[in-house]
Amino acid sequence: MAGTTVTTKAKKKMLQARAGIAALPKITGMAFGTGGVNESGAIIPHSAEQNVLHKEVLRKAIDGYEVVSDTKIRYSCTLAENELAGVYISECGLYDADGDMVAMKSFMKKGKDGDMEAVFECEDMF
């Protein structure tokens, strides 16, 4: 699995929040896409300058989060049976309350069946 890319926009927001210039918007959703691999199945990494997935197909509010440690929070999002049925998902990302992508990850294609839910988890850590 490819590494997670934290966006430049997210880094800028963190720096501004630390300086007291602006409040840091919370993570509110997860985006899913089909552009994380090329035709031969090789993973296509994201650039920190991107603010969108390669080929986004759905944005959905997160189910919630779990504080794993002082430096790690795990976000989860459930795709219902009817969501993205028959679609091969190969990238996902976390976005904030402003709608800006915070972090993105590409991975091998995962097929989504129409008769089952699928839970995706993304970790935010330092």
Automatic annotation (TrEMBL):
Organism of derivation: Anaerobutyricum hallii
Taxonomic lineage of the native organism: Bacteria, Bacillati, Bacillota, Clostridia, Lachnospirales
Highest taxon of source: Bacteria
Identification of the protein by name: Phage tail fibre protein N-terminal domain-containing protein
Pfam family, one: Phage_tail_fib
Domain Phage tail fibre protein N-terminal per the UniProt entry, residue ranges: 4-112
